[in-house]
Amino acid sequence: MYPMISRANHILFTVIRFLCISVFILLVLPTFADSQDEAREYKAWVSGGLPEDCVPEGAWYWDDKVLCAGAMSHMQYAAAGIDKRSFRINGPLAINADSSVVQYVYIDPQGVPDGIMIKLFLASGDAMSFYWEGYEEAFVILDEYINAWYMDFMPEAGKWVRLVIDFNELDMSKAGVTGIEYIVSNGRVWWGQTLVSV
After folding, report:
1. Which residues pair with 131 in a beta bridge?
2. Ranges of the chain with pLDDT below 70
3. What is the C-alpha to C-alpha distance for residues 130 and 150, in angstroms, rounded to an integer?
4. For residue 56, what are the contacts with CB-CB under 8 A and spacing of at least 6?
5. pLDDT of res. 147
6. Is 22 exposed, middle or buried (0-12, 13-18, 19+ CB in 10 A)?
7. pTM of the complete model beyond 0.90
8. Are 73 and 63 in contact (CB under 8 A)?
9. CA end-to-end span of the chain, whole Å?
10. What is the pLDDT of residue 2?
11. How far apart are CA 62 and CA 75, in angstroms?
């Protein structure tokens, strides 16, 4: 015969189990993900200037006062509405399911955007978009918003923040990246280094 467990003990056991699972999710999993990310080798794709032999689109403003890892950042300002800038390269960067893109951003605390978006152009002719936004939807007027991946709430303003786009959950097994587009809605952002693990 099994021993009887009181209702109070059962509730206490359930609460303890919930707390243990929560601690694992909040502390252990991010640490594991960070250790995996740190083990990757990244190459600077954009750092103080655009890649050689790329084809830029839009207005590019480089700031030698707001530096990221000692390199100039490119400032993007959308006083009202959406601003875009992009570039394409001739030979695609080969990527796979273990690849990722790291983007450093500095959000202007005096002009926090409604949202920011990174769009990756693929060798297949397709594109994948990833966005961070505030309490209101920022990119509903864009076609790519329909298939864009929501990443998180807007990054903290007033400091450099590291954003990671991990391809583990995406169908990127044999894709190649041929360009990138930086998009901001109603605000000001300094984009720092763009790093890619291939």
Report:
1. 117, 150
2. 1-15, 17-40, 171-174
3. 6
4. 50, 85, 86, 87
5. 79
6. exposed
7. no
8. yes
9. 59
10. 44
11. 6
